[in-house]
């Protein structure tokens, strides 16, 4: 899960609760869904957060949520904005692959070292999550005084221009550099340019932003040194470019709210497209209708209508009561603030109400049904297999079902179209929040190797196993997707080999009284000649072997790894 570093002293200062101790603060943060993961070298809290609450990627956003939780703030707050003095003109030459831009002017912001660090962290975390590593949205923050026309006495509206340029058409000094470089040279010679070169290298023309002085931003790669922000900066120009207007507009809202929390004034910017005009930031609210009965049903408690309104205001929302077509059914219209990008469904609103009420305050109740619950046969089989794996010396794991395409296929040398175990067309997420979780995994081996990769600092041997969910597109299924449980295991040690993995697999097969065969086979993840198919009761259901050195190097593993994986249902 994503993490964010928060200075507890700064958090207390922004909430106005200097008397809250560290342990109490951790409990309060946990109530928001932010889990304490440890301290950084500087003593900051490292917090794991739900990737949907992107407004909490900064200390300002977390402080805002705590103020609602403490009762110091209520309802929807929308900062006022001054009329636009600046505009962004979008030229026809802008690359079709990255046609959208948005922006805002920030006045009178107070940025000390902590504030600047928080702004930089927010920028990078938004890049990594909602911006899809800058591919979908990239943020540029500039010192406004370094842009020509920043003086308020100018009679003409100051304008910057978003254009497309030839790779070697112009030069500028990028951040962390003393030399003037063309955009093409930035991609070849600058560390940041090389990191993000793949985003624009195939474009015929590169995105660029100019003021009257010249080129000062090369999105989504790097800003110019001329407009670099420092603790002395008081007025900022925020611009964002991307492949989707909604995404960059919402990213802009989150940044504007964070800076407004530090006393800044927000000023509109006019965005002039060739065929239409926008005024940004877009701080309009949206609404969700939720019946009272549904709130009570989901939370399992009885609530007075006024209590629902109170819970909404303590969540940073607002609620108005409206009558539905059924006079006996009370319906609320909930107002959602502009920085909330996660509220897509009425259940998201109910989750907020439940947190404001306090999930720990909910008392468990037996369901009012006439049947007696029992273990599903699949669950019994899964528990029995897990028990045997632990008995064979494996540490039991529970990994995420979602993964990225690179982790599932590329890093293991598997092509989605290959005739190999673990291949197959994946069930993908249409609008994922993070590039790390874009699809459902087709097998569990990638997850196990990712754990080994993160555990290279721990002692060996490491024997890990998981019985986990997998899915793949299958048009013969009514849902279009086949779902299975797989048994996967890895043995990492200086002398791990095929025989070690097969011995444990044989012991597992004997326990479940099934016939095991391991005929030789080929698989791109495993070493040729040290790989076999897993055949149980005459049906090929998996693979076993020694992991290929290329895969080990890809995962920074310096010891041999032997592994096997097969379908859990084969043990029945």
From TrEMBL:
SUPFAM superfamilies: Class II aaRS and biotin synthetases (SSF55681), Putative DNA-binding domain (SSF46955). Mg(2+) binds at residues 342, 348, 351-352. Pfam families: B5, tRNA_synthFbeta. Residues 9-19 have a biased composition (Basic and acidic residues). Keywords: Aminoacyl-tRNA synthetase, ATP-binding, Cytoplasm, Ligase, Magnesium, Metal-binding, Nucleotide-binding, Protein biosynthesis. SMART domains: B3_4, B5. Its main location: cytoplasm. InterPro entries: aa-tRNA-synth_II/BPL/LPL (IPR045864), B3/B4_tRNA-bd (IPR005146), DNA-bd_dom_put_sf (IPR009061), Phe-tRNA-ligase_IIc_bsu (IPR045060), Phe-tRNA-synth_IIc_bsu_arc_euk (IPR004531), Phe-tRNA_synthase-like_B3/B4 (IPR020825), Phe_tRNA_ligase_beta2_arc (IPR022918), PheRS_beta_core (IPR041616). Tetramer of two alpha and two beta subunits. This is Phenylalanine--tRNA ligase beta subunit. The gene is pheT.
């Amino acid at each position: 899960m994503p993490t964010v570093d928060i200075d507890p002293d700064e958090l207390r200062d922004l909430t106005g609760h200097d008397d809250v101790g560290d342990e109490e603060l951790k409990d309060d943060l946990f109530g928001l869904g932010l889990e304490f993961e440890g301290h950084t070298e500087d003593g900051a809290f490292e917090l794991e957060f739900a990737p949907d609450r992107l407004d909490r990627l900064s200390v300002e956003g977390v402080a805002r949520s705590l103020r609602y939780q403490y009762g110091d703030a209520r309802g929807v707050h929308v900062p006022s904005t001054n009329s636009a003095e600046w505009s962004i003109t979008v030229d026809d030459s802008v690359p079709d692959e990255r046609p959208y831009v948005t922006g805002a002017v920030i006045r009178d912001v107070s940025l000390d070292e902590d504030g600047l660090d928080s702004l930089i962290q927010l920028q990078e975390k938004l890049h990594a999550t909602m911006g899809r590593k800058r591919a979908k949205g990239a943020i540029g923050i500039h010192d406004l005084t370094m842009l020509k026309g920043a003086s308020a006495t100018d009679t003409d509206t100051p304008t910057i221009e978003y254009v497309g340029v030839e790779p070697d058409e112009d030069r500028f000094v990028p951040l962390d550099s003393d030399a003037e470089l063309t955009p093409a040279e930035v991609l070849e010679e600058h560390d940041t340019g090389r990191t993000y070169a793949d985003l624009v290298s195939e474009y015929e023309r590169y995105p660029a932003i100019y003021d009257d002085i010249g080129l000062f931003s090369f999105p989504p790669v790097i800003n110019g040194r001329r407009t670099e922000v420092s603790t002395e900066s008081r007025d900022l120009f925020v611009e964002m470019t991307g492949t989707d207007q909604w995404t960059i507009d919402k990213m802009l809202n989150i940044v504007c709210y964070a800076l407004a929390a530090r006393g800044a004034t927000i000023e509109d910017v006019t965005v002039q497209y060739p065929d239409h005009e926008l005024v940004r930031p877009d701080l309009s609210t949206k609404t969700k209708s939720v019946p009272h009965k549904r709130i009570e049903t989901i939370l399992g408690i009885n609530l007075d209508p006024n209590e629902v309104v109170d819970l909404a205001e303590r969540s940073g929302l607002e609620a108005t009561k409206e009558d539905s077509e059924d006079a006996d059914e009370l319906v609320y219209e909930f107002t959602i603030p502009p920085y909330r990008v996660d509220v897509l469904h009425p259940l998201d609103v109910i989750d907020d109400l439940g947190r404001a009420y306090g999930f720990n305050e909910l008392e468990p109740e037996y369901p009012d049904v006439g049947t007696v619950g029992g273990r599903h046969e699949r669950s019994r089989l899964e528990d029995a297999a897990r028990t045997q794996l632990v008995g064979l010396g494996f540490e039991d794991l529970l990994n995420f079902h979602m993964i990225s395409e690179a982790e599932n296929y590329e890093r293991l040398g598997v092509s989605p179209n290959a005739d190999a175990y673990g291949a197959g067309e994946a069930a993908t997420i249409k609008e994922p929040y993070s590039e790390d979780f874009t699809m459902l995994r087709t097998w569990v081996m990638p997850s196990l190797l990712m754990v080994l990769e993160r555990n290279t600092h721990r002692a060996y041997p490491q024997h890990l196993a998981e019985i986990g969910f997998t899915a793949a597109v299958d048009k013969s299924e009514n849902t279009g997707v086949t779902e299975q449980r797989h048994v996967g295991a890895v043995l990492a040690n200086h002398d791990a080999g095929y025989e070690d993995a097969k011995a444990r697999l044989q012991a597992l097969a004997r326990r479940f009284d099934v016939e095991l065969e391991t005929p030789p086979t080929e698989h791109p993840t495993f070493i040729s000649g040290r790989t076999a198919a897993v055949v149980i009761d005459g049906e090929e259901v998996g693979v076993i072997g020694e992991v290929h050195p290329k895969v080990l190097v890809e995962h920074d593993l310096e010891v041999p790894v032997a592994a096997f994986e097969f379908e859990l249902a084969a043990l029945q």
